[in-house]
């Protein structure tokens, strides 16, 4: 994407109604405050990376927006309406996990569940539309070639393509991605994140992308939300990913170095108990 | 054993009401268990089926002792089991040990009830290994009614349940009430298991509730097709098992399990070459 185009899109995005809106949002479990006073607008087509150490509330933020976790204070809106459980406006891409070969589902079934899996009944009447939708979503992510194979036999990268198709098939306003690149190799990390960014932009969906590793998504990111120990910072990557900002957030010296087109953060691991590549558990 | 292939005797017995009742019951059971089996396999619930069957046996033994309907007793026992398992073992990690604990106690209780019951030996065995002649037309009505109820509820919850079974996190994110569906499916399993206790007996319910599903997922990954295949496999095993058991007068369950297991082996073999082909 050219610089000018990116600029133009950014301007257009800012004038539109935000897809996600948090106002004075606070989340605390007993004494422990994950974040407080969080104001956040995510515009249509915007790609927001959510970064931070384990336990900083990244997954909890996803759960709040999915309506699974009530805020301790403040408000959260999706598309101008308060968050609700099982919103049709949200597509969700989880981390890749092995699917057992004995679970009888094909790629197209997985994507189909994203379309109408939450409905009661057998859904025999909407079959034609379902098929068209699923085929279109499969084609969009380049998964049409293996859509009839059992999901359990597919590679991690192939499965994540299907998950992106599953999240996109219902044309959501917001895409919540919770560590979708975990356990993928570098080539697949890039492929999956570009897929997410491209389709979100094409459909004017806002993307919240939780990741512990910013580099695979760095060229795609519009803004960063960095959460650390109850503090946070929102801004463009070059504003947030600096030694000064992260040192302030972590409360301990953190060095941010640019190596080529990569960002290397040194010092934050110590705060994070030395475990950087670790799956954030649910609270 | 001379009567094992005595088809005149089989033909003669097929003319009798009690045999026809048994065949009808088996056919109904085949449909219900075939529909449930693929999801039992997907949700790794074979042990839960086993535990539920044991408690259905306990319920049936209690009913025998109290002079109530054995079918209703089995139903009550299985539903109590399903609710217990649903409530105690919501988390995957817990489930296995909870079932183990509940199952052992339930079986012990059932044995105790049978010991208290005067005509214990004969009836006790029939509850464990099944006895086709035990089914009368009242039982058949209860059976058919329960089966229809299970199928209707299953048709209602099938899509979200499949979603929750293959992709729990995304299903929750999309608003599927996973916490309601799990115990609900456990209750459906309980009802179906109770139906099975009367025909193939408590110990061998797995031959119909698990094996056909396990066989079907070996040969196809199309969810609708797994159900169709599992129903066919369960029908062949249940109805075929009863017909074959007639002439020798041997326990139904032996034949049902043998047929069911043969189908499973055949599907495993077929599935192996299928996987080899798909992996390339």
Automatic annotation (TrEMBL), chain A:
Domain ABC transporter: 20-254
UniProt KW keywords: ATP-binding, Nucleotide-binding, Transport
Species the sequence originates in: Longimycelium tulufanense
MF terms (GO), sorted A to Z: ATP binding; ATP hydrolysis activity
SMART domains cross-referenced by the UniProt entry: AAA
Taxonomic lineage of the native organism: Bacteria, Bacillati, Actinomycetota, Actinomycetes, Pseudonocardiales
Entry similarity comment: Belongs to the ABC transporter superfamily.
Protein name, per record: ABC transporter ATP-binding protein
TrEMBL record, chain B:
UniProt entry tagged with the keyword Membrane: yes
Localization per Swiss-Prot or TrEMBL: Cell membrane; Membrane
Gene Ontology biological process terms, A to Z: transmembrane transport
Ranges that cross the membrane: 20-41, 62-85, 97-117, 138-158, 184-211, 223-246, 252-271
Any Pfam family: ABC-3
Domain of life, source organism: Bacteria
Name of the molecule in the record: Helicase
Naturally occurring in which organism (per UniProt): Longimycelium tulufanense
């Amino acid at each position: 994407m050219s610089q000018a185009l990116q600029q133009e899109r950014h301007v257009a995005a800012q004038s539109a109604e935000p897809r996600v809106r948090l106002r004075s949002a606070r989340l605390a479990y007993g004494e422990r405050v994950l974040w407080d006073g969080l104001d956040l607008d995510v515009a249509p087509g915007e790609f927001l990376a959510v970064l931070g150490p384990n336990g900083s509330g990244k997954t909890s933020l996803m759960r709040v927006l999915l309506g699974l976790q009530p805020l301790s204070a403040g408000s959260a809106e999706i598309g101008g309406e308060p968050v609700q459980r099982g919103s049709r406006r949200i597509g969700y891409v989880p981390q890749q996990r092995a699917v057992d070969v004995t679970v009888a589902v094909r790629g197209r079934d997985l994507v189909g569940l994203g379309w109408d899996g939450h409905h009661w009944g057998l859904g025999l009447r909407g079959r034609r539309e379902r098929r068209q939708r699923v085929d279109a979503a499969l084609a969009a992510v380049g998964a049409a070639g293996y859509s009839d194979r059992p999901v359990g036999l597919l590679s991690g990268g192939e499965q994540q393509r299907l998950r992106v198709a599953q999240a996109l098939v219902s044309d959501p306003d917001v895409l919540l991605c919770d560590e979708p690149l975990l356990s993928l190799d570098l080539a697949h990390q890039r492929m999956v994140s570009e897929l997410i960014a491209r389709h979100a932009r094409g459909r004017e969906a806002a993307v919240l992308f939780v990741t512990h590793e910013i580099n695979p998504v760095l060229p795609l990111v519009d803004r960063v939300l960095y959460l650390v120990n109850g503090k946070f910072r929102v801004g463009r990557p070059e504003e947030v990913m600096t030694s000064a900002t992260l040192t302030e957030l972590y409360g301990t010296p953190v060095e941010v170095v640019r190596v080529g087109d990569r960002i290397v953060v040194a010092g934050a691991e110590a705060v994070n108990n030395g475990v950087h590549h670790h799956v954030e558990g649910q609270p | 054993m001379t009567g094992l292939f005595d088809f005149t005797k089989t033909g003669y017995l097929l003319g009798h009401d009690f045999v026809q009742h048994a065949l009808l019951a088996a056919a109904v059971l085949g449909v219900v268990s075939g529909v449930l089996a693929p999801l039992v396999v997907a949700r790794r619930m074979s042990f839960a089926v086993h535990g539920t069957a044991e408690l259905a046996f306990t319920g049936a033994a209690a009913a025998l002792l109290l002079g109530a309907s054995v079918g209703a007793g089995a139903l009550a026992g299985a539903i109590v089991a399903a609710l217990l398992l649903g409530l105690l073992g919501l988390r995957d990690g817990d489930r296995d040990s909870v079932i183990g604990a509940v199952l052992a106690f339930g079986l012990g209780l059932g044995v105790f009830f049978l010991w208290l019951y005067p005509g214990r030996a004969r009836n006790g065995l029939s509850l464990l290994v099944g006895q086709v002649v035990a089914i009368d037309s009242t039982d058949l009505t209860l059976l058919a009614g329960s089966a229809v109820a299970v199928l209707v509820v299953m048709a209602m919850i099938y899509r979200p349940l499949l979603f929750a079974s293959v992709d729990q996190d995304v299903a929750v994110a999309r608003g599927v009430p996973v916490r309601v569906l799990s115990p609900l499916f456990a209750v459906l399993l309980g009802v179906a298991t109770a139906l099975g206790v009367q025909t193939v007996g408590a110990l061998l319910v797995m031959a119909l509730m698990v094996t056909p599903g396990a066989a079907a997922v070996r040969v196809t990954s199309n969810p609708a097709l797994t159900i169709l295949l599992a129903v066919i496999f369960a029908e062949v095993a249940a109805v075929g098992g009863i017909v074959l058991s007639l002439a020798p007068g041997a326990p139904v369950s032996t034949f049902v399990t043998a047929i069911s297991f043969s189908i499973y082996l055949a599907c495993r073999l077929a599935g192996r070459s299928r996987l080899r082909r798909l992996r390339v």
